[in-house]
Design a protein that fits this description.
The strands form 2 sheets. This protein has a 5-stranded antiparallel β-sheet. With 278 residues, the chain is α+β, with helices and mostly antiparallel strands. α3 runs antiparallel to α4. It has 8 helices and 8 strands, in the order ααααβααββββββααβ. The protein has a domain at 136-261: Alpha-Beta Plaits, CATH 3.30.70.
Length: 278
Amino acid sequence: MRHAPERPAVNPRPALLTMLQSQHLDPGYAAAAQSGGHRHRPRTWLAIAGLLVGAVLGVGVVQAVSRAPDTNVVRAGLASDVRAARDTQQRLAQQESALAEQAKRARTAALAGNAEGRAALATLDQLSAFAGASRVSGPGVVVTLTDSSAPNRSPGRKTQGGGTVLDRDLQQVVNSLWAAGAEAVAVGGVRLDPLSTIRQAGGAMLVNSQPIAGPYTVTALGNATALETGFVNSDAYRTLTAVAKAYGIGFAVVTNEKLQLSAAMPADLRFAVPEGPR
C-alpha cells in the first residue's frame, strides 16, 4: 500500500511580524527587567546625580551672593576713577589753552614790529583758524538735531535707532556747512580739525573720540547769510527735512551774530623735517 508523502509544515516558527507584535522586549532586556538585583540601580543613580546638580547650583548661588558686595565696590571704584580721569583731562585742557594763549601773545609781540612780521602773523592766524588750532568768534549759523520721543514708524531706519540722530546726519550737516563757506565748525562744542571724526559707538555719539549728548548742535562760523542760504539749498537740508517729517526728529537752523568756538585739541606730532636753507 502506497502512502502519500507527508507535506512539510508551513511556517513552523512564528513569523517575524507575529514575534514583533507578541514580544515587545528583547529576551535580554526582559531577563534584565526580571532580575531583582539591579531593579533599583537606575533610580539610585538618578538620585545621586540630582543631589550633585543641586549641590553645584547651591554653591554657585552662595558664591554669587557673597561676591555681590565686592562687585559693587569694584564698580564704584571704576566710576570714581573715570570721574577723576575726566577732571584731570579738563584741568590739563585748561592749562594747555592758557599756555597756547601765552605763546600766541609772545609770538605777536615778537612779529608785530615790522610789516613782514605782521604779514606772517596774519597768515598764521588764518591757518590756525582753518586747522582749528586757535579760538575764534564771529557770526554764523547753528544747526540743531534732536532725537525723537515718538515711536518709530518705518522699518528702514529702525535697525539703526529709529527716530534718533545718526552719525551720518551730523556728517551731512558738517560737510554741507563746509561747502557753504564755513571757516570753523564745532559739533556738540567739540571743535573740528582736518583729522576730525564723527561716529557712533553703541548708543554714544563720538566727536574726535569725545562723547557728546543730544540735542546735537553744529555751529559754523562765517558769513551768516551765505552759510544759511548755502545750507538751505543743499541736499543735506532736503534730506534732513524729509527725515524730520518721517521720524519726528527735531531739525532747526538759526543764525547768530555772536558765536565763539574754542580751539581744537592739537594733534600728535608724528614726524617733522627741518627746513633747509633758502
